[in-house]
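User: Modeling request: complex.
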Amino acid sequence: MQNTLRKALKPLAAVVAAMAVSALLIMAAGQDPLFIFTKMLRMTFGSDYGTGQIMFRTTSLLLTGLAVAIPFRMKLFNIGGEGQLLAGACAAAVAGIAVPSWLPSPAGIAVAAAAAMAAGGSLGLAAGWLKVRYGVNEVISTIMLNFIAQAAVSYLLTAHLAVPSTVHTPDISQAAVIPAIDDVLGIWKRSPANLSIVLALLACVTTWAVIFRTRAGYEMRAAGINHEAAAYAGIRTTWYQLGAMAAGGAAAGLAAANLVLGYKHSFEAGLTSGLGFSGIAVALLGWAHPLWIAVSALLFGFLEYGGLAVNAYVPKDIFMMVQAVTIILIVVSGIRK
Amino acid sequence: MEAVGLSGITKRFGTFCANRDVSLSIRAGSIHAIVGENGAGKSTLTKIIYGMHAPSSGSMTIKGQPAAFSSPRDAIEAGIGMVHQHFMLTGGLTVTENIMLGQERQRAFGLLDTRTSAERIAAIARNHGMEISPDTPVRELSVGEEQRVEIIKLLFRNADILILDEPTAVLTPEETGQLFRTLRSLQEEGKTIILITHKLDEVLRIADTVSVMRKGEIVDTLPVPGLDKQSLARMMVGRQVLLRVNNPPAQPQKVVLDISALSLRDHRGRLKLDNLSLQVREGEIYGIAGVEGNGQSELLELLWGMRSRHRKPEGRITVDGRDVSGMTARDIAGLGVSHIPEDRLRHAVIADYPVPENLIFGRHREQRFQRGAGFNRAELDAYTREMTEKFDIRYDPDPALPISRLSGGNQQKIVLARELNRPGLRLLVLAQPTRGVDIGAIELIHNTIIAARQEGIAVLLISAELDEIMTLSTRIGCLYGGRIRHEFSDDDVIRGRRNQREFEQEIGMHIT
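Assistant: Request completed. Predicted assembly structure:
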């Protein structure tokens, strides 16, 4: 119990320290930190629209965070969230356009989301396979796959998918659209928040349950902690390596549901920028624990939108720096146990 | 003169008291043994002397000077050196480079002065009867040689108080003899040696003084001359222990494990197993005596279906008539085979998992532990209670406590409990079952192995301890150069046991 408390306090201390750093930066930019922070709070959690914005961003980050956290249990570092998300977004758009509009909405969404997960998952699986079969370090292969995904998606978009003389695809079929929270509950008005958040939370809780409550999770954690002992106990460790990478990729791909199916209703260039990489930070801050990741995704969602909200007073880059400082502090405190 | 003086040392970890009011005086120039069961507090005490732990209370003097170390660096400066159970060497560097590490004598802006150091290392080695070639990469050394490097490292740094933690656990009888000659020679030079061990024979053979620890306290400190093994053992565990297990005559039945003409070459083509044949029958313990590195690891890997970089083996291994070649560990376990690997922490348990999770590790696919996609918690708890009671596994009842916090003996009991309890067990393969385990636990482990044999289980025992092989085995195979060079029949073994010393020598001849 005492241990858990200390474990939880460390990230908190890092966040507080990072906020102190940002206060200094804000002062250096010639503004009153207290004023900026109040402004930021009022425009984010203090407003209906702002809360919706945060939730929208949290949804994506939660999933790209999972994309890093799941393979992390197997001591695999998935840097490929960006490419997996991009492939997922492209696949979601293609599937979403192809879905006939007479299909019932849940089925249409399921098809498009499954396409996104399959696309992201196969990129993850490819990296896993390179690791298992040829011993290629997954950090290198996922970075390379990011480049490949970027180039391939951008070629597909400009040459085949985009509406002529634009950089976006046609709109997806009505059957694949995930409804906005505004339309369903009447809160977070006009914000991009949509029901994907339910999918994300479900993915989070399911991941937690699988890892900590099932026999498969028991085997997977054992294989991650001690590869050799797991092999002695008859556990097929390579399957778990492949499975973890595929599941991570699928989680990143699912984030596309939020962006394409729930928000833009089409795929466009630059839609996913940086979300895959922020996922690394989210996972690190959440100790790669599926439930803590929800908390850290919320924090990063807040910082991201909060930075935008006060952009008129101080450059939003300050809050990007805060994110990075938080991570560095976490890593430092993690090393010095 | 006093080399180390401890007075009223207490060390607490949270609520657990590892050392309680320990007072001890270690005479300069003596070989002082500290014995005790696993978890008795020996390691903690030496870590305090070596500056790795600060005592919660009490004081320490080194060579008469009050000392309070905040790190091993302070201890090293005060002339204390320690050889840990796990050696701290870098495989890719040579002996000289390893010894110089952290002590580089540099010519200003110049290259490392390896030549002078190598000469000094050779001289130290020569003076104390240690054979070592300074330019060999450490990864090519045997365990015994690695230990010599560790000792030379301390001498190179001018340590005059040497702490050795279980130094003989990894050595062959011959290497042990060599180590003891070195220790004697160091003593003659005036060095003080603190020896942590639980092998009482060795205490009687080499030490001048012995301190017995039990439950964190020093029970007594006595001069060794005049002591006998029985009374020392009694002090250690606080009760009369059987140093000889009761081993009734075996009644072997049909063959379970049949290894015939097994040969194996490694990826470079070196012969690791050479036409090895042996059979283990129901209700017998087949002991394999041998110096490590004569094919034990390779044999064990093949028996457990482990893939390695070796070439494809020739010959056959069958269990109850079924060929196991190409089978995975899981398939082999399914035939009713249990395997207790020599390196517990690396191969047999998940150090971060708590006791119940480790008690089912490798057996977690059994129906009885399952419920839905997860585990049947109630069944698991009941099973844990049953096993901890039956095997006298002692641990903090905190259910989340990782197994790495348990003593070596208790960890081994957990592995043994798990493997012996396997349903439909036919063959038990044991490698070094009592390595790093204290006397109390050894007794229980030995009795359990014999009880399993009595139930008709076939047991293959691989051990570097001749004592263990002689006490437990029905038949003994002497492994040398990857083959069974000589086999002692049931009658040979029974006869041999009547005259231990002679028998030991006879086995020794066949394995070297």
